[in-house]
Specification:
This protein is an all-alpha fold. It is built from one helix and no strands. It is elongated and about 45 Å long.
């Protein structure tokens, strides 16, 4: 899964109107925007992608905080 470009507010670069890389469907499943639909809570692949997205966002936030401390 390509999560390049994902932030707290922005979807991954590969997402578009035809599909979301997290949901694999034509709706946004960004963890901070709406998440997975209830029906996909049974889909292990979608759950794995959603967890990877949450982890990616958390790691990016931690890295930004560490960088801010270095420059402070």
């Amino acid at each position: 899964m390509k999560l390049d470009g994902i932030t707290d507010a922005m979807c991954p670069n590969e997402c578009n109107a035809d599909g979301c890389v997290i949901s694999g469907k034509p709706y946004c499943a960004h963890p901070r925007k709406g998440g997975l639909h209830a029906i996909q809570m049974q889909d292990n692949d979608a759950l794995r992608r959603a967890e990877q997205a949450r982890e990616h966002i958390a790691l990016a936030a931690t890295a930004a905080k560490l960088e801010a401390r270095k420059t402070a």
